[in-house]
Amino acid sequence: MPRKKQRNQKGSVAIVLRGKSKDMLSLQFSYKGKQQRRALGLKDSPLNRQYAKGIAAKIEADLAFDCFDETFAKYLSTNETVADTPTTIDLFTQFTETRRQGGTSSQRIHSVYKPIISNLTRFGQVIEDEARARAFVDLLRSRQSPGIANQNLSLLKSFGSWCVDTGVWSENHFKPIARLKRVNTVSDRDPFSLDELSQIFTVLQEDKYYSHYHDFCL
What we know:
The protein is mainly alpha-helical and 218 residues long. Helices cover 47% and strands 11% of the residues. It contains 7 helices and 3 strands, in the order βββααααααα. A 3-stranded antiparallel β-sheet has the order 1-2-3, with helices on one face. It starts with 13 loop residues before the first strand and ends in a 12-residue tail after the last helix.
């Protein structure tokens, strides 16, 4: 007889591997009758697995005493240094290499992808939520035309989808950000007054070289 799939005991937190390569650490547990999955954004390694076990133990304790933090911030706010934790620059570099292997030209990599990495370096923060994603997009928009900024936003949304597919992010932080609307530039310069127009036409009519253009301006 086929063996039944073993389920987690009530209140327990399992460490599972997700992503296309099945090498990204995630936590899986039940809360309020619903299955919960939380990506840690860490590759599987002995040190990172130990770190994941520590978080799992904290969650199990809070589940037992009905004080689980649904925002999950409590469990990730730690001063411990974790090896192999990918920064956003690391992730975008991996994403770029994936695109290169997928056929993206070297010229496009150099002209489109590399500037994003430079701006991520300038930004200097790890993008781990929508607020920081918006802050980074605002940085790009302050340095780029609306058209280029919109192109980069599309690229960042693809990057966010890749992060979700690989199990690094639980959601695409760039997805909710709207594109900039194209605005037609209208001059705010005041038009000539009737008196000014009258003076211009008078001078034109009396000019010996250009007086013959006067009637064409009326």
